[in-house]
Amino acid sequence: MEIRVRSGDTLWHYSHLFFIPTVLIVDSNPGINPNNLQVGQMVKIPGFTESSYTIRSGDTFWKIAQSHHLNIDALLLLNQNTNPSQLEVGQKIRIPLRVTTLTMDGQDHYDFQKLNNDIEKLLAVYPFMRRREASKSVDNLPLYDLRVGKSNRKIQMNASFHANEWITSPILMKFLNEYLLALTNAQNISGVSALSIYENAQLSAVPMVNPDGVSLVLNGPPAGKREEVIRLNSGSTDFSGWKANIRGVDLNKQFPANWEFEKERKPKVPGPRDYPGSSPLSEPETKAMANLVKNESFARLLALHTQGREIYWGYEGLEPPESEVLANDFARLSGYKAIRYVDSYAGYKDWYIQDFRRPGFTIELGLGQNPLPISQYDEIYAHVKPLLVRALI
């Protein structure tokens, strides 16, 4: 929702008028000097949309404000060209509406287009969230990095490294949506003040690392590549088992952490899963994720995968002591099993631990055979939500 600045207005006044923390209003308006508002400037108020109200006989601004649980100055602010003492029946005025429910509209068939639509909706209501492109995929789709928080203490979370594990994307997006909603409604999330998280951590969320692969699994081969991807899929048009990117490279076998060892025991040609590529970081998606870590100095990293209800937290004894503490907390909160070492290498969290000696985790969501059925969505989310909150504190 946008409002126009009047003489004497301050962001502090807007904060008290709409019960929105001042910091969220400031961060929603990065181009405005909060100490020197100019009359006529447009200011974004996060956590609100607006509706139209039609004046009826006997209406006054005071009555309308009372019936909508608003301060009367909120109506005056949104309707500066309306004379409150000369209301006419049938006249329309603007009414601010606080957002109190999730903005996302479901999770089924969660491809890049659905993700992009949800991001646009979140940005419209929560403009203090920042969106940037980490890079682009093979098929030129943006790899979005969504940021929420003030601190230089940065936590990275990502989803859908593997195409048929696409359920991880709406899980991460729902968490982001609940966090944003809690911030603008002065609420806790899993028992923790959302505002305290915002002030003490910066979340970097990459909700779909492999958009081309996800689209292949959900929508079938893209135009111009049908014959090629069917060939890589051993002649099958069933892509439900496809984990790789659109070129047949397994993105979570691409990182320089015992990559040569994985290369020797994994497929030697591109295909639906496990091919580690011709060299480490050969794919634009893995280059982007590696550069993100190199440039941002993340304190922790969580990669969401499926399935197994397990938390992998070690790599070659290089993980710091904090990793075990966090892994045990994650296990307690989620009901998942914490596992230090597995016979798998060249993954994102492996490389992160190896090169940065900081806590990195692969979280295997849910149980069953990939792709997990969407019927598990609510159960998975209930397990993982408190874990994700703990990762931020």
From TrEMBL:
Belongs to the peptidase M14 family. GO terms for molecular function: hydrolase activity. Residues 1-45, 51-95 form the LysM domain. Residues 108-392 form the Peptidase M14 domain. It comes from the Bacteria. This is G-D-glutamyl-meso-diaminopimelate peptidase. The active site is at residue 364. Pfam families: LysM (PF01476), Peptidase_M14 (PF00246). InterPro entries: ENP1_M14_CPD, LysM, LysM_dom_sf, Peptidase_M14. It comes from Lederbergia wuyishanensis.
